[in-house]
Design the sequence.
DNA sequence: TATGGTATCTGCGAAATTGCAGGATCTTTC
DNA sequence: GAAAGATCCTGCAATTTCGCAGATACCATA
């Protein structure tokens, strides 16, 4: 039931009570394990997804199967509607952690948009924010060298991770997964992480990366004027 | 007057007649010469811009003043609203050709959104499409080598150019401007353009680049599965 | 038409990135 | 707990990209 949902940041909360109940009765909320596809590139668009809990990567591949992660999403984010107006997804989505994700079909969503201006406006604002973030990312990936890109990637992962309450952010992604976020390869990521560890800018516990001072990492990227969001 | 506007693709056309007239009476439509700032990074957000005619680049700079073009826009596109909810622009916008651009203030826009669900939905879809395009661009810039990036840039410029009616698309941007779109430098762009001219994939007339076969150029990038949009 | 300033082109050495290879470490499975 | 498989780390050579510099071509102004 949406009305009892623990996730206050869900966009559906911007609908009227009637509509929240209506959507609630039509949605379903499967439980996804880690590394599970939510939808594939090329598959039919049936509706949209709202992340209740967990972390998700949005990916796009070239013809050889090489994957690029184009966006990370966490609870409160909306997925899959990017392809609105198209019949098929041009991107895919995969869970990075165990997740709960609500699905709402196209028709219900369309009616909700027409009758809930506040909801529609907030969804518009969400896309507007994501576009701005994507554009800042474009700039950073275009201008930065490898080391800076890796730091950017780590901060981006931290930003979209769920347990950022403590002063120790832990990153469980593989070097390969991090490389796909910033458009490089796993060797480069390894090298940079080794250097950052020597410089005391992060720690590692086995393969887990531990960020103990986000501000110090952000300071290394201050040339790029990205104080607000990563 | 919006009702007599030549630009059918303007998002404002999705409002009711009443509202089109209301917006029409409140907007203004300055005439911008080439290379004119529409708004600056860091300046206050007063409203949104709707391009009636012309081509615009959205830019973001680092602290040394080095510029990256993060998006191109043409007639029918909406600008400046990316910063919705923020007080200041995180990006800037500059005309690439002589342009007419309508300005609508925040308050009028907000009321229009609340009372014109169709308008709001179309604006949402616009941002959704732009986000998808930005993400495909992220992937391409991350995966492509220099030559491929230059071709991508040329196709992107052609796509957002106004005179794509003939089978000869002419590009009047400088090598430096092209370089800023794809995140490289003017020398690299020169080199690639020379090679493409030798391979008969484009012509040059003085400094103007002439694309006479867009399909052939697109074919060189087919590995990246970007058939739909650039 | 002449002239100064700017943009473009291209060669070349420097720097950064890539990709392979081999060894070390960690995880999984039995 | 041992073995097999996967991931991670790091050195090195090959490749790509960068950025300076000089030559050429173009544009604006007088």
Sequence:
């Amino acid at each position: 039931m949406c009305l009892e949902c623990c996730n206050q940041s869900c966009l559906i909360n911007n609908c009227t009570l009637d509509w929240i109940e209506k959507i609630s009765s039509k949605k379903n909320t499967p439980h996804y394990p880690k590394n599970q596809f939510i939808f594939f590139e090329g598959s039919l668009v049936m509706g949209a997804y709202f992340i209740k809990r967990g972390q998700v990567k949005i990916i796009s591949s070239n013809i050889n199967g090489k994957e690029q992660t184009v966006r990370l999403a966490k609870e409160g984010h909306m997925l899959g509607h990017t392809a609105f107006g198209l019949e098929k997804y041009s991107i895919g989505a995969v869970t990075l952690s165990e997740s709960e994700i609500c699905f709402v079909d196209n028709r219900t969503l369309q009616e909700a948009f027409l009758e809930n201006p506040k909801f529609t406006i907030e969804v518009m604002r969400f896309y507007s924010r994501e576009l701005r973030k994507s554009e800042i990312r474009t700039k950073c990936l275009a201008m930065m060298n490898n080391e800076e890109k890796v730091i950017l990637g780590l901060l981006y992962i931290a930003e979209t991770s769920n347990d950022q309450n403590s002063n120790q952010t832990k990153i469980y992604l593989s070097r390969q997964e991090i490389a796909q976020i910033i458009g490089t390869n796993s060797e480069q990521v390894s090298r940079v992480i080794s250097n950052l560890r020597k410089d005391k800018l992060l720690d590692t516990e086995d393969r887990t990366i531990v960020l103990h001072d986000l501000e110090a990492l952000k300071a290394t990227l201050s040339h790029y004027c990205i104080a607000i969001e990563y």
